[in-house]
Design goal:
Length: about 90
C-alpha cells in the first residue's frame, strides 16, 4: 500500500479521518505489512502483502485477524493487540 493513500482513507465503519498507520515492513513509500487504526472506534485493519483489508466486521475473517495479531504482536501497539476491535488477543 502506498503511504500516500492514507491521505484519502477513512474508517469504513464510522467514516473517521485521518487514520493512523503502523508499519511493520516498508520500503520507501510502500507498506508491505502493517496495520491501519481508527482512533475513534478502535478498529484496526491489517495490511497484508501491500493490501489494506478494510472490510466491515461481518465480512472479516476472525481466524485471519487473530493469526495476524499473533504474528505481529511484538510490532504492533498495545491498543491494537489487546483492545482492538473487532477481535484482539
Amino acid at each position: 500500500m502506498k503511504k500516500k493513500l492514507m491521505e484519502i482513507l477513512a474508517c469504513p465503519i464510522d467514516k473517521f479521518y485521518p487514520l493512523e498507520i503502523f508499519e511493520i515492513t516498508a520500503k520507501d513509500e510502500i507498506v508491505s505489512e502493517g496495520a491501519i487504526f481508527c482512533p475513534k472506534c478502535s478498529r484496526y485493519y491489517p495490511i497484508v502483502e501491500e493490501i489494506p483489508i478494510m472490510l466491515p466486521d461481518e465480512l472479516r475473517d476472525k481466524n485471519q485477524d487473530i493469526e495476524f495479531l499473533k504474528k505481529y504482536k511484538s510490532n504492533l501497539p498495545d491498543k491494537i493487540v489487546t483492545s482492538g476491535v473487532p477481535w484482539h488477543l
